[in-house]
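ok so i was messing around last nite and threw this chain in just to see what happens. nothing serious, just curious
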Amino acid sequence: MTTEINNSTTEDIDEIFRLYRIATDFQKAKSAVHWPEFDRRMVLDEILENRQWKIEIDGKIACVWATTFSDPLIWEEKNEDPALYIHRIATDPDFRGQNLVAGIVRWAKDYAVLNRKKFIRMDTVGENKGLISYYEKCGFKFLGLSTLKNTEGLPAHYDNATVCLFEMKLD
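result:
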């Protein structure tokens, strides 16, 4: 089995959106909070800026996510810290249960250090206790729940939502 982490390409955009739809359907089945239909231009920009990533297993996209080095609307004053922010992890159901988030975390540690970052951060919308526990098992500290002050420019699922914040401090 060959596993690789690479930047997503423009040829991957339909698969990325397929995985987002699957993730959204899964979220709808589990809770009231779910992802909206994401803006295709936003994802294309992430691809062109080398901020959209994929895990490929034997040539098939198993998981996708996006990164940024700035996230002021969610992290507010903490955005001043040198951090890597991970967003929108979506896994193909054929690859669930293979601990892909742990693989993302290993990759993110190296990528953050390479880019002189001291933290890896993530957020989720809604208080999903199972997801909180899973991210803690992956090495993140759960910082608690937050209500965002300004969601203008963020995807729709952030409007009037409670956000769980997660952080991993790097040595």
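not much to say yet. The mean pLDDT is 94.
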